[in-house]
Design brief:
The structure is a single chain. The chain has 338 residues and is α/β, with parallel strands linked by helices. The protein has three domains: 3-91, Roll (Ubiquitin-like (UB roll)), CATH 3.10.20; 105-195, Translation factors (Elongation Factor Tu (Ef-tu), domain 3), CATH 2.40.30; 207-328, Rossmann fold (3-Layer(aba) Sandwich), CATH 3.40.50. Helix content is 17%, strand content 33%. It is built from six helices and 18 strands. The strands form four sheets. A six-stranded antiparallel sheet has the order 11-10-13-8-9-12. Strands 2-1-7-3-5 form a five-stranded mixed sheet. Helix 4 (216-228) runs parallel beside helix 5. The two termini are 38 Å apart.
């Protein structure tokens, strides 16, 4: 069975290609019609040097002018000499356009719509083949009947034909209006992608996830992936919303917690009149100990003020995390989650 190799380009486009255990990554990319930087093919020039962010592999013969021992220790590889021994994520130092890579397009049908929430719509679309992406990434989803697209993170696990999304019901929003009052099961929808550098890295230490509103979607994808690929490191999710009506997917979170003994989560509502046990902002209910003296990877997805608020909170408690990954969104920008 081939390994999945995620090629992450500088412009945020990701292509996931199959690569056999005895196959060079450069040859697998070429077979997929992706022209990653390449020249000598003999491990001599260094043109195909990339960074393997996760996964295991073997390297063939190469000279130090092409790849130094120090670079190899830091995870740099020559794709003309690299053979995977697991799934891998490889950062390509070029744009997808420079590599003549077409963004993958998919035609799907709406299979489920949930309009129970007053402020949020969740829905599932069915693709004719499994869709590979990195948990946390997004796609540009076409609004039926228009030429417009909107960016949404998957709320479902990778490598499935069932693809879930969670969107904010924005007044007069193009996609949210369609999903709230017009969409029906069986409707055709299309999307391109996946995109984005906000995705789950290898879990090698505790993880702190902070979600604002429908910024919960990519974390659901990450947690579903972790459910199938368990880790013993602790995972904490802090999920904040504005009002009681905005609090969704609690059944899904409770089911994940029941299946994952290392997962803890709590919810926070900004509105002080909500009667919720925790009011205010998520950072009001975190402490320095949640940053594990810096031995933690922090992920934040929410509106820009939330992301900046988390930065200030970390600075205020005087702890710098091992890594800090974030995705900002609003109702008027790409990644709107509208």
């Amino acid at each position: 069975m081939p390994f999945n190799i995620a090629l992450q380009f500088e412009d945020g486009v990701t292509r996931v290609i199959p690569c056999d255990a005895n196959e060079l990554v450069s040859e697998a990319a070429y077979r997929a019609k992706i022209n990653i930087p390449l020249d000598c093919r003999d491990g001599a020039c260094g043109t195909c040097k990339c960074h393997c962010e996760s996964g295991t592999y073997t390297q063939g013969v190469y000279i130090e002018d092409a790849l130094t021992d120090e670079e190899a220790d830091r995870g740099y590889v020559l794709t003309c000499q690299m053979k995977p021994t697991s799934d891998c994520v490889i950062k390509i130092p070029a744009s997808s356009a420079a590599c003549k890579t077409e963004v993958a397009s998919y035609a799907t049908k709406v299979s489920k719509i949930n309009r129970d929430s007053k402020t949020t719509v969740s829905f599932t679309i069915e693709a004719d083949r499994p869709v590979s992406f990195l948990p946390g990434q997004y796609v540009n989803l076409g609004v039926p009947g228009t030429q417009e697209t909107r960016a949404y993170s998957f709320s479902s696990a990778p490598n499935s034909t069932e693809l879930g999304f969670l969107i904010r019901d924005v007044p007069n929003g193009l996609m949210s209006t369609y999903m709230r009052s017009q969409a029906n099961v069986g409707d055709t929808m299309s999307f391109t992608g996946p995109y984005g550098s906000f995705y789950l890295r290898p879990v090698e230490r505790p993880v702190l996830m902070l979600a604002g509103g429908t910024g919960l979607a990519p974390f659901l994808s990450m947690l579903l992936w972790l459910k199938s690929n368990p880790t013993t490191h602790p995972i904490m999710l802090a999920y904040g919303v504005n009002t009681n009506d905005d609090l969704v997917e609690l059944d899904a979170l409770n089911a994940l917690k029941a299946a994952m003994p290392n997962l803890e989560f709590f919810t926070v509502i900004v509105d002080p009149a909500s009667g919720h046990p925790k009011c205010g902002y998520v950072t009001d209910h975190l402490s320095a100990k949640d940053l594990h003296d810096g031995n933690v990877d922090v992920y934040v997805c929410g509106p820009p003020p939330m992301v900046e608020g988390v930065r200030k909170w970390m600075s205020g408690v005087g702890v710098t995390p091992n890594s800090f990954h974030f995705e900002k969104f609003s109702s008027s920008t790409a990644g709107a989650h509208e």
